[in-house]
């Protein structure tokens, strides 16, 4: 149980620390950063939004496939369990895999929403 809690702690703190660094960088400016700064060509916001949606969908599909594999592994463990403890571990794996699929799906929806919002604002400004 202690190993599980340690893994869960790492899964929570590592992304939060990563997000905190990004927020600290953006915090000092007071405005959104200029995404075209330093580029020789203009950046089309609609193209950028489409690229973001494409990348997030592909990453979400990859992580979702891993989560489905974990779910299948847990189901196999439940089906072949010799005792109640092994069956409980399999059920726990299945539950975490479903939570992972839900979290990844929600993340893809949120990223797509914001990317399409950027695309919509870009279309309205032109």
Instruction: Choose one word for the global shape.
Output: elongated
The ordered string of helix (H) and strand (E) elements is HHH
Uncertain runs are: none
What is the count of distinct domains?
Answer: 2
Helix content: over 70%
Oligomerization: single chain
Mean pLDDT over the residues: 76
Count of runs of 4 or more consecutive helical residues: 3
Please outline the major beta sheet.
none
Structure summary, number of beta strands: 0
The proportion of strand residues reads under 5%
The chain-level structural class is: mainly alpha
Overall radius of gyration: 20 Å
- What is the terminal-to-terminal distance? 56 Å
Structure write-up:
It is a single chain. By secondary structure, this protein is mainly α. The chain has two domains: 32 residues; 83 residues. It is built from three helices and no strands. The N and C termini lie far apart (56 Å). The mean pLDDT is 76.
Strands, helices and their partners?
Blueprint: H1 2-27, H2 45-79, H3 84-125
